[in-house]
Amino acid sequence: MNTVTVDTRTVATASVVEATSTDFRLLFRWLGAMLLIAGALAACMWTRMAVRATALELDATRSALSRAEIQHERLLVERALLRDPGRLADTATALALVPPVASVNVNEAVTP
Fold first, then answer.
1. Domain ranges of the chain
2. What is the model's pTM?
């Protein structure tokens, strides 16, 4: 009689290998999805931090603008005070400046 022996280990091993590769594919898909989500969250956090940094810079710029506007107003008032005719006359007197003498055109005065 001829007896045929069948190796049942190869069939069992093939199904285990197939199941393991399917598990790894599923694991890699989940890992890829998690990495994508983590990247999106990191990008979101980075943009939020950039917006906050920009807001801080904008606040500092607004403060500087406010200080510059106050300085500008102060300088306008100071310029107005320095251009005051009464102050200019007092300064001219203090410096011993004399007003110009009225000039007479001799040629026009001689002709009758």
1. 9-93
2. 0.50
